[in-house]
């Protein structure tokens, strides 16, 4: 299979001890302490290896490579905010041309990996992503979803959840919920294009993450990953809690871990007993207005209701 | 191969074919579409060995083109008007990547009102981006310029993308005889692209397009682009020399038409220059020492050639087929900047004409020459003249009446 990296182990792993020790994101990045997105990326690049080129869109992670430094062992191309998948198209097509014309040894092939935040993935980059999916581009897409435009100071994006505070959806007397709109379902938007592989991931579930990349490896075409990425300054919590918060979002059922192979959706982890969403919400400044000065019961109920409804739809609610 | 009757678009496609371009990301827009359709057909028939992909927008198209160029293949793309502006963000971006991409823009007026006829607000909107710009008068020139553009862009003293401009309809859809050389001769002029600066290889990982923090670092890279663009003036001369040797056709950054002894000079670009040349001939018949300077290379701006060519002229009229609303002609401002410090600078007059493909009639050229001689007599140069004939005015009045605004 073209694009297959012989170095990449594809057998599933069982425990965190089997995660490759090699680091492909080296230390010393300007990302915030406790950045869930960076932890996601660290695991993803352990799975992908060094023979990759990352095509990035404007986001926090654009600042990972600031001239003349880069924390990566692999290549990197920063494009702009809306068009990383189009950049991936150009790189992939060019690599294929070079291989076909005998100018690049197939052993020297690179995987093309798009890396963007939710702002690009859910909003501005939808057209270029849809185009890449439609053309069945052989690439990986890693979206670290911190549920807002983080780099510009945490404004509301299409990924921002209902009831949360962002810099442009502050709660107030007229709008007590803060964000009034529902988060878009990017998984379903992407899934409607019928890509060979699509999954949600979490930095708190590295084994699940690693195995999803290993599984994705066998498919030619788009391989897409959305990571629910805890963001200490944006969400308002102590950096030390980053992993436990990411874990809570899964345990409460807010972030379902799932995959879709050619459109067929399976959940890869279902909590035995769902924790109440409040356990997750009350840990974050961005939801503080739901609890004080008065409890906004209707909003809390409605958030819990939406989560229950999701799992009921899949008949997975105990 | 010999001579073929080709449209400007057809000539562009032939240029791409004989440059043996590897990769063409595309997106349709009138009046450019014939270029990409022609290429798509050749690829489908096996006449051309290249990859073609229809993108989801010009923004994506320019990105893919720049990214492929950054990966190390010879890349081409084309657009026009709204498409160029839709991709505007990436025009600046890929120029900063310093990749030797070649593009064609088929000029068309910008919305709104939305229209189809040509003018140069589209191409001039990207004049500060870092793309080099070659503006063509004939179909032959379109073909030739594409070959020259790759040679220029890929030269390591330059490493900037090049955009070749032609007028929509007037050139894009007009058939003219075009000399098509054989591929071997083209190869001897334009050898295979061997990227030495921009590529992706696992053995040599590289971060491209990276952020810089700090104005002093940002300025360094911007100045580098400017200096490379300036280098391109010299490199262009070499390219022209090579080209003439191989193909027998001679180009310069500017074209001087009956200029040597001229006293009254029109400055024009692109296909309407043909109208200007006819006007010069007529003026000469009436005894006026008229001439024309056509700007072929607009970026880098060929200041030395212009200064030299206009030394001692009495009056110069810049006909801008564009309008900087609230200021006037864009090229007029550039010419004024170029000539201001010359000791014997001519009077410089400004005319706006040909917007959206509006004709420039013989009467309008007469008006322009009149204005030049009057200005010379009085020493007074008026604000930009907006060319419009009485007939056009009447026609417009008719439309307004129908629209209920009469
Ligand atoms: C065309 C364009 N519009 C706006 C911006 C400003 N901008 C830069 S990063 C960013 C936020 C991106 O948000 P997201 O994709 O969620 O990534 P995050 O910053 O959260 O990591 C924005 C709006 C830009 N760079 N380009
Ligand atoms: S703002 Fe959030 S996403 Fe951005 S670097 Fe900091 S923690 Fe990571
Ligand atoms: Mg974000």
UniProtKB/TrEMBL annotation, chain B:
It comes from Methanococcoides seepicolus. It holds the Pfam family PFOR_II. One of its GO terms (molecular function) is oxidoreductase activity, acting on the aldehyde or oxo group of donors. This is Pyruvate synthase. Residues 262-364 form the Pyruvate:ferredoxin oxidoreductase core domain. Heterotetramer of one alpha, one beta, one delta and one gamma chain. Keywords: Oxidoreductase. One of its GO terms (biological process) is sulfur compound biosynthetic process. Residues 16-238 form the Pyruvate flavodoxin/ferredoxin oxidoreductase pyrimidine binding domain. InterPro entries: PFOR_II, Pyruvate:ferred/Flavod_OxRd, Pyrv_Fd/Flavodoxin_OxRdtase_N, THDP-binding, Transketo_C/PFOR_II. Gene3D superfamilies: 3.40.50.920, 3.40.50.970.
């Amino acid at each position: 299979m073209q694009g297959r990296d012989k170095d990449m182990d594809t057998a599933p792993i069982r425990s965190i001890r089997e995660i490759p020790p090699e680091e492909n994101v080296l230390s010393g990045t300007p990302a915030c302490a406790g950045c869930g997105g960076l932890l996601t990326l660290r695991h993803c690049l352990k799975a992908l290896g060094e023979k990759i080129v990352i095509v990035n869109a404007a986001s926090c992670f654009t600042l990972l490579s600031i001239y003349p430094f880069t924390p990566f062992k692999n290549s990197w191309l920063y494009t702009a905010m809306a068009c990383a998948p189009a950049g991936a198209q150009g790189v992939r097509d060019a690599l294929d041309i070079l291989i076909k014309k005998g100018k690049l040894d197939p052993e020297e092939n690179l995987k093309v990996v798009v890396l963007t935040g939710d702002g690009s993935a859910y909003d501005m980059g939808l057209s270029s992503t849809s185009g890449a999916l439609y053309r069945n581009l052989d690439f990986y897409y890693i979206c670290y979803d911190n549920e807002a435009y983080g780099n510009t100071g945490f404004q509301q994006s299409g990924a921002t959840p209902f009831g949360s505070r962002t810099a442009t959806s502050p709660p107030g007397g007229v709008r007590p919920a803060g964000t009034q709109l529902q988060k878009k379902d990017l998984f379903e938007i992407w899934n409607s294009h019928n890509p060979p592989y699509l999954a949600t991931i979490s930095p708190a579930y590295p084994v699940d993450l690693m195995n999803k990349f290993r599984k994705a490896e066998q498919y030619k075409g788009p391989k897409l990953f959305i990571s629910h990425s805890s963001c200490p300054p944006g969400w308002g919590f102590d950096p030390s809690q980053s992993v436990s918060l990411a874990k809570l979002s899964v345990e409460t059922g807010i972030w379902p871990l799932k995959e879709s192979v050619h459109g067929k959706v399976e959940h890869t982890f279902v909590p035995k007993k769902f924790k109440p969403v409040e356990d997750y919400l009350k840990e974050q400044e961005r939801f503080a207005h739901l609890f004080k000065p008065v409890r906004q019961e209707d909003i809390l109920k409605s958030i819990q209701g939406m989560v229950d409804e999701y799992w009921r739809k899949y008949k997975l609610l105990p | 191969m010999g001579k073929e009757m080709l449209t400007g678009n057809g000539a562009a496609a032939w240029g791409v074919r004989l440059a043996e371009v590897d990769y063409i990301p595309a997106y349709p827009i009138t009046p450019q579409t014939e270029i990409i359709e022609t290429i798509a057909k050749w690829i489908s028939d096996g006449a051309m060995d290249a990859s073609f992909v229809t993108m989801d927008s010009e923004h994506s198209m320019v990105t893919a083109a720049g990214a492929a160029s950054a990966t190390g293949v010879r890349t081409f793309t084309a657009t026009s008007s709204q498409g160029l502006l839709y991709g505007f963000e990436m025009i600046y971006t890929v120029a900063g990547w310093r990749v030797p991409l070649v593009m064609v823009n088929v000029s068309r007026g910008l919305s709104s009102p939305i229209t189809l006829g040509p003018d140069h607000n589209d191409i001039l909107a990207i004049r500060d981006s870092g793309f080099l710009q070659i503006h063509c008068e004939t179909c032959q020139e379109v073909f030739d310029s594409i070959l020259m553009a790759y040679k220029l862009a890929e030269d390591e003293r330059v490493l900037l993308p090049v955009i070749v401009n032609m007028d929509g309809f007037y050139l894009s859809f007009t058939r003219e005889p075009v000399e098509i050389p054989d591929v071997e001769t083209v190869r001897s002029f334009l050898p295979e692209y061997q990227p030495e600066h921009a590529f992706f290889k696992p053995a040599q990982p590289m971060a491209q397009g990276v952020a810089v923090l700090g104005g002093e670092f940002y300025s360094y890279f911007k100045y580098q682009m400017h200096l490379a663009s300036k280098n391109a003036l010299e490199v262009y001369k070499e390219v022209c020399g090579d080209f003439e040797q191989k193909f027998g056709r001679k180009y310069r950054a500017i074209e001087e038409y009956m200029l040597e002894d001229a006293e009254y000079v029109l400055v024009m670009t692109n296909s309407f220059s043909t109208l200007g040349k006819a006007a010069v001939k007529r003026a000469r018949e009436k005894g006026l020492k008229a001439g024309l300077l056509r700007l072929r290379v607009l970026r880098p701006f060929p200041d030395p050639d212009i200064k030299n060519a206009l030394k001692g002229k009495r009056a110069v009229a810049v006909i801008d087929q564009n309008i900087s609303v609230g200021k006037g002609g864009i090229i007029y401002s550039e010419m004024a900047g170029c000539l201001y410090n010359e000791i014997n600078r001519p009077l410089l007059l400004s005319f706006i004409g040909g917007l959206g493909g509006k004709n420039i009639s013989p009467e309008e050229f007469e008006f322009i020459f009149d204005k030049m001689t009057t200005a010379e007599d009085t020493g007074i140069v008026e604000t930009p003249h907006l060319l419009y004939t009485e007939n056009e005015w009447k026609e417009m009045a008719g439309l307004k009446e129908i629209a209920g605004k009469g």
